[in-house]
Structures
1.
Amino acid sequence: MDLRCEGCAGCCVDWRPLDPAAAGSDRTGPRPPLDDLHDLAPLTRDEVAGFVDDGLAAALTPRLFEPADRDDSVRIDGVDLAAVDDRPVFVVGPRKPPKPVAPVGTDEPRWLDAYVFLDPTTLQCRIHGDDRYPRTSATYPGHNLELDAETECERVEAAGGGDRIDAAASSLDGLVREVEGDAGAPGTPGWD
Ligand code: SF4
């Protein structure tokens, strides 16, 4: 797979204030998340433990879900949560604090919720190449392509973001992307 991430950051920011169509939605299932974070990129258990061991727990955020019909649920502070064995189901991913950033197709930086490790000036990921670089980021959007699901790359392309995926090179070799000037996108559906 050949991605053109340089200068993009399309999947690293919350596009809803810029272009809702380009943002898409990660609230399509029967269990909507309780939070308003867009495109949370879920981490594995070991990745979460690694960030916590490094003192970076503040870079992470949990996501809880409303229960679907017939789901087990647990009520906490008056809120029903999807649960298994009376324990809430959750995922953990990188936070998206607001940053002044100008992703692909925009000229001026503006305050957008952005992947916690995204450098808003260079549009590069600060932990790309690091041991802590999440697998979700390393493989995005390979799984989407394999499942024939829309990617952020295609959405930002459609919104005027140029040619992000090289179709001629879009075999999913190892589901690990080869990038030109990688932005370290968390992907998402993140998991941007
Ligand atoms: S993965 Fe796609 S949307 Fe994300 S930075 Fe790279 S080209 Fe842009």
Note: The first strand starts at residue 2 and ends at 3.
2.
Amino acid sequence: MVKYVEEDLLALLKEISLLEENQALLGWDALTGMPTDSSDFRAELLSYLGGKSFELMTGPKMTDMLNYFRQNPTILSKLGNQLVAHESKKVKLNTNIPNEDFMEYQRLTSKAQDAWAKARQNNDYAIYAPYLKKIIEYKKKFIKLWDPQNQAKTSYDVLLDQFEPGLTVAKLDVIFNEVKTGLQKIQNKLSYGQKPDDRIMHREVPIAQQRELALTLAQKLGYKLSKGRLDDTIHPFMTAMNRNDARITTRWATNDYQMAVLGVLHEAGHGLFEQNIAAKFDYTPFAKDMAMSIHESQSLFNEIIIGRSKSYWQNEFTTLNTVTNDTFADVSFNEWYRAWMTTKPTLIRTEADPLTYPLHIIIRYEIEKAIFNDDFNVKDLPALWNAKYQEYLGILPENDLVGILQDIHWAGGDFGYFPSYALGHLYAAQFYHTMQKTIDFDQVYASGDYQAIFDWRKEHVWQYGASKTPQEILKQATGEELNPQYWLELQDAIYTDVYQVVIN
Ligand SMILES: [Zn+2]
């Protein structure tokens, strides 16, 4: 007797998707236009909807259905079986932990985030440390429950795998060591070059002009306003309800138009991904569960591959001057581009330029590894943090605000997440390397018609949504595993030019 058919699974997944669309829209509204007094009501509503979708995702109907389909795979299409595998993994992750522990942990992370904010206000790590310690204890307990047979080589591997399936410390150590060594060589080389003068980057550009510039550039790369919009916020993000509604946000400063332009290009890259997922994945988790690394590779493709390319700007410098009423007309293109590309070590990760950014991630990765694989003491984390900034970036945080207290991630229990940011950089460069075999970028940029770039990204990345892992997409698109040399070669070429290093 047939107990379930594929349509039953699709109907249940659609119900979950509809609830999640609601949550996404309400979440977007909370961060863009909601009246401040409404926040308690909104939190109540979001937690209600979150509870409903969680129930459907892990409840008896779903588990029964997944069991049945796993025993009867032949009655499902290929897509149906892929969905069963995907959902089974999710259910396992969420149900291996006893309910009381899960609820207690949720409360703890919410309190920890308040403690983190308070610690920031008082510049006092000690306020936050006890909460961080408890979160780590919970995570260590969860790791044992998630990996009961102790299959992972190290504890931290279990966390890495949740954000980037298949990623391990053994693999990442090799990759990050290559990046560290390569970056040292580049930094060394640049010390013999000419530092650009970046004062022109802080010329005043009215926000209306910045908006027009950023939106013009984003739309030329294919971001569609008929399927999206741009709003103001404090911490920029992209949120997608579905492939026809992928909204981006940004923040503005009249004396820092670069922040807005690169910020909008970045978020529009996330939006492009969402707007171009194949319609066959509508109302399934494959339209929304993309791994963060592959998503980030697309926002970063806009930001660091296109938005930092000399030949791209050679063409768009005219747009910049037209929109800003010739604010930069007295500056030569070369002078402007060198200013645009200035690199210097910063203490704050989110303010880092593309060259130094991965070092911020490597520092966090090494600290997380110390916490989970070597039981490093929470009390001593600020000292470890500072020592690593001194060693890798040559700058010492003068306090914990610009040190260990800068990111909210650990207060939310997000360990194993940071490496995805760096992987996004490396993936973007590897895609670019492959694309150059069939696309003449200089010629495409000079023509002002970027369709060829759009088409490649849609065909090889966006259309798949979350139906493939990042490694599968990378391998299929570029023919090889992750190779950080492409990123290093690209940065070396760009900055050797910008810093006018003479090679004898
Ligand atoms: Zn991003």
Note: The first helix runs from residue 6 to 32.
